[in-house]
Amino acid sequence: MLHAHTSNQPAPQQHPRDWAKATDKELIAHVLERYHVRHREQLPELIGLAEKVERVHAEHPDVPAGLAAHLVDMLQELESHMQKEEHILFPMILRGQKNMAVGPISVMESEHVQHMEALQKMLMLVHQLQLPEAACNSWRALYAGVGELRDDLMEHIRLENEFLFKQSASSGEHGCCGGCGGR
Ligand SMILES: [Fe+2]
Ligand SMILES: [Fe+2]
């Protein structure tokens, strides 16, 4: 007899992914779709919101003065960084040339340090996301988005530093037995 499947159990994909077990190809696809695309959406939105809040509340003592300009700088730095990953480093990794990419990887890692410093400055400008009493909806949306950007960028950098850029991380679909002499 057939049984109707009415299970409402969550799909297994809802569990957090263990990226240590992912291939470089899977990691790169995830980084591009989840973070590179998202940063290119969220930063222009936040710049527009920051300009509005800074203009409307220019006289408020807690206004995040200088935030829009800082986000413009962050977008430019991130865009340049992501293009280097997309056009130079990620294709090398996908061709199995991670061991030849020591130079580009160290450049990307030092830019990640600069991104973390930019995040610290961003959080200082928004007073560690402390909203003033009776903040308007735009101000609330701005700080919610800034918090999301902080979380996204930190996780983006963590995945690249801890997994994708590590020489010992999974280096593609083909496990190496060592018998080929590393070729
Ligand atoms: Fe990236
Ligand atoms: Fe990166």
Care to describe what's here?
With 183 residues, this protein is mainly α. The chain has a domain at 20-57 and 78-164. It is 62% helix and 0% strand. It is built from 4 helices and no strands. The longest helix has 33 residues, at 24-56. Bound molecules: fe (ii) ion (2 copies). One fe (ii) ion binds at residues 81, 85, 108, 112, 160.
Give descriptors for this structure.
183 residues, mainly alpha, 0% strand, elongated, disordered N terminus, disordered C terminus, binds fe (ii) ion
Order of helices and strands: HHHH
Secondary-structure-based class equals mainly alpha
Which outline best applies? Answer: elongated
Output the radius of gyration: 21 Å
Assembly state (oligomeric): single chain
Q: State the end-to-end distance.
A: 56 Å
Which percent bin holds the helix content? 55-70%
Bound ligands, each once: fe (ii) ion
In short:
Helices cover 62% and strands 0% of the residues. With 183 residues, the chain is mostly helical. The relative contact order is 0.16.
Annotate the secondary structure layout.
Layout: H1 24-56, H2 67-94, H3 102-125, H4 137-164
Helix pairs in contact: 1-2, 1-4, 2-3, 3-4
